[in-house]
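Contributing new complexes? Match this layout with iron/sulfur cluster.
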Amino acid sequence: MIPLPGTGDATVVRDRFNRPLQSLRISVTDRCNLRCQYCMPEEEYSWLPRETLLTFEEITTLTDLFTDVGVDKVRLTGGEPLMRRDLPRLVHRLTKNRRLKDIALTTNGILLGDQAQALYDAGLHRVTVSLDTLRPERFRALTRRDSFQQVLEGIETVARIGFPQLKLDTVAMRGFNDDELAHLIEYGIRIGAEVRFIEYMDVGGANDWSADKVLSRAMMLKSLSQRYGIIEPIIEQSSAPAQRFRLPDGTTFGIIPSTTTPFCSTCDRSRLTADGMWYLCLYAKQGVDLRQPLRAGLSREDMLSRLRSVWQSRMDRGAEERKELEQTGARGRLIGIEKLREDPHLEMHARGG
Ligand code: SAM
Ligand code: SF4
Ligand code: SF4
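Output block (do not edit by hand):
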């Protein structure tokens, strides 16, 4: 008997490298109210046409199918997910799926002050806020917007409401915020959040990534241990991308070393864009259109077998391949700017980071 969506045990499907499909990042919009230099530096992009955006009902239906093949964690992202109107309504719909153990949100925080309570009431489990600096003038230079205070208010609202496991994600960049690592950790301690430092990645193509802007895990650990003393790695079994560490006073923090030490061999993540394209890797140049068959009324069994067969043939290991290019000095821009302008899916903000 075929179980109803969201009930019973799902059979986990595995790819060519035996990696399970367990986590899905759902981008709910490609629009954003910031223009972070490392992600979306241009003012205008070719945006996804409105009529192609998945409705909440379609997102829920696709999520139910994904949980039938093993997904048990979703993360709502974007663009800026809180720019999608009525997001708590989507969260509430997703909470009906009993196979989802984790429903998380990644946001830049600007609209959290207004929306955090409604998201909590709707059943959202966890929030991660991206925060790269504690200096208003740096925030303005990085994001080209003046919203620093709103971000802090948003973070503090989440902390006050009592969401468990609040995280702050910081893209660590050499020559930009390398002098703020300790300040960010200490801000995290004050508000009860764990900070995770992400190495700057060469995704998309409009940003001006270069190897000398990457603050590597080794550099971060060196600088933090000069300030705090011995830093211990925390040994844990987890498919989460962050490696966690403990300072001598017990404070924990994470590093996501995507650029210098890719973790593709354990990657269980894939991404659904706001218009229903399924990407098997952050660096994938092509995705699988799920909107078209969904709107054409393909049967549930056929949709499931499509999901299974696509994942079973997956061989993506984008970050490792990018790293291998370094040996021949061929690591350059992933995608040319002209190509980016033609295809809105290729940028980080369309596929959700
Ligand atoms: N707008 C939301 C936010 O900023 O949290 C969600 C979408 S954003 C694309 C998701 C994450 O991707 C953010 O934490 C952002 O810092 C990260 N990101 C974007 N571009 C990046 C890059 N080039 N290298 C590393 N992380 C990046
Ligand atoms: Fe910045 Fe997130 Fe917007 Fe990208 S999507 S520009 S990381 S706020
Ligand atoms: Fe997974 Fe691709 Fe990122 Fe590697 S680069 S960890 S395969 S999403």
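Reviewers usually confirm one structural detail per submission. For this one: Residues 148-161 form the longest helix (14 residues).
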